[in-house]
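Input record, target 12 of the design panel.
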């Protein structure tokens, strides 16, 4: 008889159909919750063993639904166990996936449980099976509006009021619409609603790659709020520095508005996407892969756009992982990095030129407080208030002249990502 093969077999090849995608979802959740990685970043490693693109998409969807619904899934699990399972117990993680399948994605319960049980082989199989069965027999359901994690509710209620925290629940309950930024007024594009010039809003889930004008490169996907920073620079023919530019939504807008753009970012892989976006749209920019904390500009720019790295809590609708990994420590780290980049960016603006600072964050430390501290340190800059015709109807500038986009704003037309945007002019 041949000796048994002691080499470790690929875990996915011995799995029944459907199990590898759940295994990958478990890895994704571990990467986000234990290691604080963004879901998108974890995707490549966690789904490496999956050979079918639909499996990758399913693993991603499962992890995203668990993160969107985490407090509600945990409340159900806790209601059906006598001893509370540890936060990081594998049984809890596997139950979250099974319940998200059955209660959110509409997977038949028998398939939802059968595809996760192999993830706890040699472990608490009976417990997982028992808890899931109890909840299904009880006809368990999730609340209509997802419950946000308690620290988020507390922080946003303190910062913006209970109404905004509640609006955030409503805005994460349904997939957000899809916004397109147009390269020019007359490009081919799918039918939708225009909330600003060169903008089209499509319903959630609209197919993108097959849509009219995609192949011609006449438009790109960009949340309407994310398009405001470049809009505040307007059109022109001079030189603009797009700092922290990848994957390039704002670079494309600036190039399409006529500027000679230098697009700088530290991340090589994201710069690859920026180059692809330039190639698809036929727009041009000078592309620099460098650290903004070390790079030096050869000459000042007419405008600098700093779309700074941040906690990204404003994009929680599309990226629910931020709700679980962007806490006070990350926010403080990001605020410090932003202040350092902002100080350098300011020196690259010519006198009379513009500096636009933006973050997709709902944290004042990365927005209002950052700009106030900057203005205190730099008497040669003043806020240049955003004007009503630069913003969508229903989104006024704040009294200080900057733009603060919060959950609940423009809710009747599908809402916006959370953002902070401030245009400043170098006065001296
Ligand atoms: C909010 S994203 C930029 C999004 C981009 N502006 C767009 O519209 O597509 C922030 C970017 O900052 C970059 N970044 C972080 N630290 C940096 C640094 N020290 N120097 C340059 N870029 C940096 C990240 O790689 C990331 O691409």
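The sequence produced for target 12 reads:
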């Amino acid at each position: 008889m041949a000796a048994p093969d002691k080499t470790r077999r690929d875990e996915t090849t011995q799995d029944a159909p459907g199990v590898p995608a759940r295994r990958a979802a478990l890895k994704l959740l571990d990467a986000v919750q234990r290691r604080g990685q963004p879901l998108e970043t974890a995707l490549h490693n966690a789904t490496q063993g999956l050979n079918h693109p639909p499996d990758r998409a399913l693993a991603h969807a499962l992890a995203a639904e668990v993160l969107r619904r985490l407090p509600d899934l945990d409340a159900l699990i806790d209601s059906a166990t006598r001893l509370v399972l540890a936060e990081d117990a594998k049984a809890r993680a596997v139950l979250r996936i099974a319940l998200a399948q059955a209660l959110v994605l509409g997977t038949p319960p028998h398939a939802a449980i059968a595809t996760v049980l192999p993830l706890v082989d040699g472990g608490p199989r009976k417990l997982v099976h028992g808890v899931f069965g109890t909840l299904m027999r009880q006809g368990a359901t999730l609340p209509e509006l997802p419950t946000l994690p308690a620290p988020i509710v507390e922080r946003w209620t303190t910062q913006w009021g209970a109404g905004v925290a509640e609006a955030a629940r409503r805005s994460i309950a349904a997939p957000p619409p899809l916004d397109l930024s147009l390269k020019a007024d007359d490009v081919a594009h799918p039918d939708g609603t225009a909330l600003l010039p060169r903008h089209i809003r499509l319903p959630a889930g609209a197919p993108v790659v097959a849509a009219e004008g995609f192949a011609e490169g006449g438009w790109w996907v960009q949340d309407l709020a994310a398009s405001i920073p470049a809009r505040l620079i307007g059109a022109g023919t001079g030189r603009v520095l797009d700092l922290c530019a990848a994957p390039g939504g704002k670079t494309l807008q600036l190039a399409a508005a006529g500027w000679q753009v230098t697009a700088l970012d530290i991340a090589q892989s994201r710069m690859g996407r920026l180059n692809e976006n330039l190639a698809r749209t036929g727009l041009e920019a000078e592309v620099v892969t460098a650290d903004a904390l070390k790079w030096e500009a050869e000459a000042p720019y007419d405008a600098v756009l700093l779309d700074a790295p941040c906690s990204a809590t404003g994009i929680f609708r599309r990226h629910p992982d931020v709700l679980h990994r962007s806490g006070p420590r990350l926010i403080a780290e990001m605020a410090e990095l932003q202040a350092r980049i902002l100080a350098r960016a300011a020196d690259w603006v010519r006198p009379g030129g513009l500096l636009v600072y933006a973050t997709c964050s709902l944290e004042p430390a990365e927005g209002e407080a950052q700009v106030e501290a900057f203005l205190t340190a730099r008497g040669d800059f003043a806020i240049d208030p955003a004007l009503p015709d630069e913003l969508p109807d229903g989104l006024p500038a704040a009294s200080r002249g900057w733009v603060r986009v919060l959950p609940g704003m423009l809710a009747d037309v599908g809402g916006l990502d959370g953002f902070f945007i401030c245009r400043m002019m170098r006065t001296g």
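The first helix runs from residue 19 to 33.
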